[in-house]
Amino acid sequence: MSSPHARIDEKVHIGPKELVMVLTGAGISAESGIPTFRDENGLWQGFRFEEVASIQAWHKHPHLVWMFYSMRRDAALQCGPNSGHFALVELERKLGDRFFLCTQNVDDLHEQAGSKRLVHMHGELFKSRCDRCSKPPFEDKRLYETADSIPNCQCGGRIRPHIVWFGESPFYMNRILTELDRCSLFICIGTSGAVQPAASFVRWARQRKIESLAPVRTIYIGPDEPENGWYFDHFYQGKAGEVLPELFRVE
Ligand code: NAD
Ligand code: ZN
Questions:
Q1: Which end of the chain is more exposed for a tag (fewer CB within 10 A), N or C?
Q2: How many A from CA of 109 to the centre of ligand 2?
Q3: Quick one: which ligand is closest to 75's CA?
């Protein structure tokens, strides 16, 4: 079943008491030049994900894993935010604490644009951490391109990317569930609806049973209908950078 298409010039009205949760995926960074998952037939810049984005891969060939993330760091360093990212900053400026952004992206383009109230559920490309002890992650823009360039922590563990790999648990789930439970508008942008648990967020928001709250409104923005498309009330078909700047009317 397909989701109802909205006219692209139909504004989304946001009332004075509304709470807005936004979920973004790789699509919002596509116009900045960062390839999505789908761009390359399920390959990430030539790599199969199991080879580079799992804990098994890390144990088997940490050097290859770091080559991949070094390449992504290098590529992301050349990119800046686009008008889609800026439109969300503008929305946050108008809504203040009534705005919450959850991104599946590991790039820092939302921060570069100026977003403040955001969490990275799948980790951050420009942070690293120890693979053994619980020292907090640290800012890291370095590239580790040779086998002997991977540093060790003081505890003897190895420094790994601060990324949620397949089979690992996403970050900030308590906060995300709280926001899903109380938002009145759920906006999803540029995500294929194939990666769990993010793909279920729209369903969870719709299924919540808090009687004092009106049912949540759900909208999707992107060029293709996502796999979970029929959970959305409205589908704005187009590129994030073109649709978002004119989409919202905050009352
Ligand atoms: P995905 O690659 O599976 O899907 C991308 C989606 O973006 C598609 O549905 C596509 O239609 C849409 N899209 C393409 N161009 C768009 C545009 N201009 N505007 C709006 N939408 C556009 O990505 P996903 O659903 O986010 O899931 C894949 C996983 O890949 C996530 O876990 C994410 O962490 C990771 N990833 C992140 C980045 C990044 O950090 N920028 C890039 C690639 C993959
Ligand atoms: Zn350590």
A1: N
A2: 29
A3: 1
pLDDT band at 31 (very low <50, low <70, confident <90, very high): very high
Task: Kindly state the average pLDDT of the residues 27-48.
Answer: 79
Specify the residue with its C-alpha closest to ligand 1, atom 39: 105
Name the phi and psi angles at 215, rounded to 5.
Answer: -60, 145
Q: What is the C-alpha separation between 130 and 151, in angstroms, rounded?
A: 9
How many whole angstroms separate alpha carbon 121 and alpha carbon 123?
6
| Cα 61 to Cα 176: distance, rounded to the nearest angstrom | 33
Decide: 40 and 86 in contact? Cβ < 8 Å.
no
Residue with tokens 């992107």: 222
Distance in Å, CA 4 to ligand 2 centroid:
50
Query: Would you state the structure tokens that stand for residue 100, as one six-digit string?
Result: 């919450």
pLDDT digits (tens, 9 = 90+) for 123-151: 999 999 999 999 999 999 999 988 789 99
Between 6 and 73, the more confident residue is: 73
**Residue 85 · residue 126 · CB < 8 Å:** no
pLDDT digits (tens, 9 = 90+) for 151-181: 999 999 999 999 999 889 999 999 999 999 9
Alpha carbon nearest to ligand 1 atom 26, residue: 25
Ligand 1: distance of its center to the CA of 80 in Å? 16
Amino acid at 199: A
